[in-house]
Amino acid sequence: MNHSSQEWASHTQQPGQPQHPPQAPHPYGRAHAPAETVIEVPNKRLHRYDKVKPGEQTVTIRHAGPGTNGEPLAYVHVPQDAPKGGRGSRPPFTVSGPNGEPLSSVRSVGDGVYEVYGGDGTPVGRITRRGGRTLPWPRRVHWSVQPAQGGEPLEGEVGTRKAWTVFVLISPLYFVCWAVMAAQGAIWLLLGEKGEAKKEAAWEMEPPTWTRWRHAGGAEVAIEYQTGRKYRLASPRLDPRLAYAQAVLHVWDRA
Hints:
Blueprint: H1 5-8, E1 37-40, H2 44-47, E2 59-63, E3 72-77, E4 93-96, E5 102-110, E6 113-118, E7 123-130, E8 142-147, E9 154-157, H3 161-190, H4 194-201, E10 211-214, E11 221-225, E12 230-233, H5 240-252
Antiparallel strand pairs: 1-2, 1-12, 2-3, 3-4, 4-5, 5-6, 6-7, 7-8, 8-9, 10-11, 11-12
Helix pairs in contact: 3-4
């Protein structure tokens, strides 16, 4: 599929969508975003979006910072009939505001590339995922966020080098423990104890996930993910629509 940069950056209004006055260009979108926000993006319903009841949002993006009460910031909607494309080609989804106003739409164009559009159809940016691997030596998953207005992209790699080194070194021990737990689960299953068998089978070691998005060679962190499906949005220049889209795609990878 052809997704040339000329077509993506043409800022052509899509048919049937409302016209909005053009906004002043800025390398990171809307400049009036809060200086720092912590959001929570649950991912269980993303993995089973086809089971969500019609009319319900798939995921609610909420405030998660100090002094907040989990107020909703946005709602993510994934079509129930969308095909499951895997980590390199997630289903299309839309994001709406707390009052139902359209904020953005995200669609895959293949090879880990996602185009992000505003509620009026104007291109907001492009998000790219480059796959990683564990063996024979880890290559970290790499994310890139490129605003449509230009400027340097934000780059983020999943997990730190030290964390991946430790993960590789202790992996043999993990596989031994996993084999023991699996054997215990099989015994419980033979005894008819399905609940205990599920507990034994549920134990797993998650790979390193700490991710920080910043300029190449820069020190300022724009987005940070540590654990708990929570993201710290630390740059007032970052368009929240791009941040929400990146957070959804990133958390979709988590188990």
